[in-house]
Design a protein that fits this description.
heterodimer; A: 274 residues; mainly alpha; MetI-like fold; 11 helices; 78% helix; 0% strand; B: 489 residues; alpha+beta; Rossmann fold; OB fold (Dihydrolipoamide Acetyltransferase, E2P); six-stranded mixed β-sheet; five-stranded antiparallel β-sheet; 8 helices; 32 strands; 17% helix; 42% strand; disordered N terminus
């Protein structure tokens, strides 16, 4: 009896935790199919409808914000992956001061984001007013800021993979007649691809999520990302089509995750079976 | 074994020194390697053997000195332009390529001369081309056949066993037709049976390919069975170069004797040519040319000691058997005689506690020069009755003036080591311990990077941090006449 009870308790605990994590998301998904402006209005759920989804694609401001988010996310994540990977490789083959540089490169990961945000804000003013270089905040500036913000995460993702590699791999390339660049690209890089993809995904998600840095650095030109758009809307009335957008984002992320895991599992199995 | 006809030098290492973060790993090393040899660099870990190999491969640049391959100075030439290939310790195969592509990697990059052509200025220019697909396929398959993996081309390298991966690594290196094949402990990661098999195969491959092999190992048995020439290294210095038989039968010093095979190393005195005294007994030996009463080290291999019953007429020493273990074809025994514990391998059975006579024939005794008979340092008189050397200040009665440079001689037995660094006058680390039967010869280095040899009955472990106390009455000072310290690097 006791055993059964403990089993039930264990399951109960697990379910409570999972519900707590997924309840808000589930709520969004469910209500994305309701056209009611306010959740909890006297009409209740109303009828099941895709109207929010069609509204979403008609809301030009929101579509623009989505497009901006994607552009900033993809470009900055690509740049961060490129810079971060080369930094990680450089760090790996460094002989002196490796630990120190590694440490310095990771400080911004734990540092409060608000510091980076304000820092970039001040930097933009410094560049414009002190260095007298015309700088318009906007998408370009946000890409720079997001790249800086996410590069340490790529280093964090690629670095451990490098440490797992056979230390002589690069040398083996040199030994067989490949120059330093060729060895790097044809021998070392292929081993890093999966960690570069994870790094890219991490950088992209962080950029997608970011509000603090973006809001302070988007400038007055009316550039919005999803997060700043939602925030600006909240002050008035939250556009219900946000629910549809959130659902779409969630589903895409979920799909990507599932595909990623399937591919990874297949690869592992292939390596084991040979 | 077929001796290659051309016996010229293929590799020359001249005055090479390598310093890593203030540690001298290779010290003014000179080495010539002849074409076609199977040469082994043998030594304990940290002796500099891998560094030396990596300098020949081009991965590490010497701090000073030069390396020549076929007479050409390659010291500053990068590895991808050197006519050598390496088999790495942990294979370092490319995980994203299959076996065939791994082996083909070097070939795809290789350029072969294909005649000369006149350029626009009318000068003759050598033309190069890449290997064709068919040539590459042919060469790769030949290399895979040589290592016994002809049907494995399409296989994923991660699915192969350690031994197979090692074969791929060898194929990948030899397919490039290097002038010298460098092997960095290539069998270290394999199990014993596989290792034995690969040893035989490597010797066979060396014979078939006819190229020079430089093989790094810490395994003395591997070195002795496989190579034509063994180079024994320790502390970045060559201790001995010789054939396997030479380094085993005639070790140059106590280190080599101790490192190669089991041995009894004893301190003795050369009374005259062909006569050596040790353990209070005079023995006939086959060595000569030492100074009268010169202190020497001598080595007696366990199989060179014959055991006879106590009442036998034969034998020079009487001893007591401490332990006896049957090893299949012989007994390995610890026998104590005149205060020395001999390791003996004999077919004669003896039980622990039994008294026996030991016979050591002249050809079983090998005499070696003592590495050093006294510790010698350069110091300076720093005040009334004090002398500074090795980073410490020592009170030594002297009438010399302050500031006089002196040579300080400290006998091995004048030094006492203490557990607590605070109890000594200076601190030091233990680097080497050699058991000499009745005492230990301990080598330490001070914080000023100077070596001390100490004879002690206490047992110390390598890397122990110790305090050094010196019995001042045994120290001898000698004034240095001229300034000789001009060569500071």
């Amino acid at each position: 009896m006791n055993k059964k009870l403990s089993l039930i308790l264990r399951w109960a605990f697990l379910i409570i935790v999972l519900v707590a994590i997924y309840l808000p998301i589930a709520l969004i998904v469910v209500y994305s199919f309701s056209a009611e402006k306010n959740i909890g209005s006297e009409n209740g759920f109303g009828e099941f409808t895709f109207s929010l989804y069609s509204q979403l694609f008609q809301n030009s401001q929101l579509m623009e914000a989505t497009l901006n988010t994607l552009i900033i996310g993809v470009v900055s994540a690509l740049l961060a992956t490129f810079i971060g990977t080369f930094t990680a490789v450089g760090l790996y083959y460094m002989r002196k001061g490796k630990k120190t540089v590694n440490f310095i490169s990771q400080i911004t990961v734990v540092n409060a984001e608000i510091v980076t945000a304000v820092g970039f804000f001040l930097l933009s003013i410094f560049i414009r007013d002190v260095l007298s270089i015309p700088l318009n905040k906007g998408i370009g500036w946000l890409i720079v800021a997001h790249t800086v913000l996410t590069t340490p995460y790529v280093i964090l993702s690629v670095g451990p993979r490098l440490n797992q590699l056979n230390p002589n791999l690069y040398e083996a390339g040199l030994d067989l007649g490949a120059g330093p660049m060729r060895s790097l690209f044809t021998v070392v890089m292929p081993q890093l691809i999966s960690s570069m993809i994870s790094g890219f995904a991490l950088a992209f998600t962080l950029s997608l999520d970011d509000f603090v840095v973006t809001n302070l650095n988007k400038g007055t030109g009316g550039v919005n990302t999803i997060s700043t758009f939602v925030y600006a809307n909240l002050k008035r009335n939250l556009d219900p089509s946000i629910r549809a957008l959130s659902t779409i984002i969630f589903v895409i992320v979920l799909a990507v995750l599932i595909v990623f895991n399937i591919v990874k599992n297949k690869k592992q199995k292939a390596a084991q079976v040979g | 074994m077929r001796e290659p006809r051309v016996l010229d030098k293929i590799i020359e290492v001249k005055n090479v020194t390598k310093v890593f973060d203030d540690t001298t790993v290779i010290d003014e090393l000179n080495l010539s390697i002849r074409r076609g040899q199977f040469i082994t660099l043998l030594g304990p870990s940290g002796c500099g053997k891998t560094t030396l190999l990596r300098m020949i491969a081009g991965f590490v640049a010497p701090t000073s000195g030069n390396i020549y391959i076929e007479g050409q100075d390659v010291t500053t030439i990068p590895p991808y332009k050197r006519p050598v290939n390496t088999v790495f310790q942990k294979y370092a195969l490319f995980p994203h390529l299959n076996v065939f592509k791994n082996v083909a990697f070097g070939l795809k990059l290789k350029k072969v001369p294909c005649g000369e052509k006149l350029n626009s200025k009318g000068e003759k220019v050598e033309q190069f081309r890449k290997f064709t697909k068919e040539e590459i396929e042919q060469k790769v398959n030949r290399a895979l056949r040589l290592v016994g993996l002809e049907d494995y081309g399409h296989r994923d390298v991660n699915s192969l066993s350690g031994g197979q991966q090692q074969r791929v690594a060898i194929a990948r290196a030899i397919v490039c037709e290097p002038k010298v094949l460098l092997l960095d402990e290539p069998l270290g990661a394999l199990d014993l049976k596989m290792r034995k098999e690969m040893q035989i195969e490597l010797t066979k491959m060396h014979r078939e390919l006819g190229i020079t092999f430089i093989y790094v190992t810490h395994d003395q048995e591997e070195a002795l069975t496989m190579s034509n020439v063994v180079v024994v290294l320790n502390d970045g210095l060559i201790q001995q170069i010789g054939t396997p038989k030479q380094v085993y039968d005639e070790p140059a010093n106590a280190f080599v004797a101790d490192f190669i095979g089991e041995s009894n190393i004893i301190s003795g005195t050369m009374i005259k040519d062909f006569s050596v005294k040790f353990l209070d007994t005079v023995f006939v030996c086959e060595d000569k040319g030492f100074a009268k009463n010169e202190r020497v080290d001598l080595v007696i291999r366990p199989e060179d000691i014959d055991v006879f019953p106590e009442n036998s007429e034969q034998g020079q020493l009487t001893g007591t058997v401490l332990s006896a273990v049957f090893k299949g074809t012989y007994y390995e025994m610890e026998i104590e005689a005149n205060g020395y514990e001999f390791t003996v391998q004999s077919t004669t059975e003896a039980r622990p506690g039994q008294k026996v006579k030991l016979l050591i024939k002249p050809n079983g005794i090998h005499i070696m020069k003592k590495l050093r008979t006294v510790n010698e340092f350069v110091g300076e008189v720093s005040g009334e009755n004090t002398v500074d050397f090795c980073g410490g200040s020592f009170e030594i009665p002297t009438t010399l003036e302050k500031g006089t440079p002196v040579k300080v001689y400290v006998p091995f037995d004048a030094v006492e080591l203490t557990d607590d660094e605070e109890d000594g006058e200076i601190g030091a680390n233990v680097t080497h311990v050699l058991y000499k039967g009745s005492y230990y010869q301990v080598q330490i280095y001070t914080d000023t990077d100077e070596d001390f040899y100490i004879d002690t009955t206490d047992e110390w472990d390598i890397d122990d941090r110790v305090g050094v106390k010196i019995n001042k009455s045994k120290i001898r000072l000698e004034v240095i006449a001229h300034e000789e310290e001009s060569d500071e690097n």
